[in-house]
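Q: My labmate handed me this sequence with no annotations at all. I'd like to see what the chain might look like in three dimensions before we decide whether it's worth expressing. Could you predict it?
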Amino acid sequence: MPPLLLPSPQRAVQIVATDADLGRVLLDIARSAIGEGLGLDARPPGDHPALHSNAATFVTLKQLGDLRGCIGSLEARRPLGVDVRENAIAAAFRDPRFPSLTAREFDTTSIEVSVLTSDERVAAHREEELIATLRPGVDGVIVQHGANRATFLPQVWETMADPQAFLRALKRKAGLPQDFWSPALNVSRYTVTKWAETEFLLSEER
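A: Here is what I predict for the chain of 206 residues:
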């Protein structure tokens, strides 16, 4: 996840992956927001100085390890705490790939929050050059051509380790042919700092 995201009018503070306190607060914000949306009582989240600086985040929901919703921001236009709250609500109730989360699923849904760094443009004249620059397991990637745009978080590498397959699947997600290439194709990459409820549970059990 590093410094925070894309340039914005209000520059974001730096985020460190070892800041477990911030991770817990962000996960609590996400769970509390979803609980409120379901009409359930949820633990009120705490506070952290980083919450008030602009950031771009993604909130990912999983059921038994399977994706149950994932919505996020690519530009740091809102305070970190607000961005996580809004993306959590959207992931639970407005991801078009899934039905709205139900109260019965709430306790068995695990939450992951990712905070993005500023993205950087990747210059390449051919797809082969681009593929050679990608860092599996590290890079989140954005592709854009005209109005077509999509991203994969670095976590996607866990299920798609081949860079060529990764890039071609991302182009399909953007609504482009998988073999599409154009000098006007805009590709950029970023990294993330992420926290997952499952990781905190494992550390508490040890």
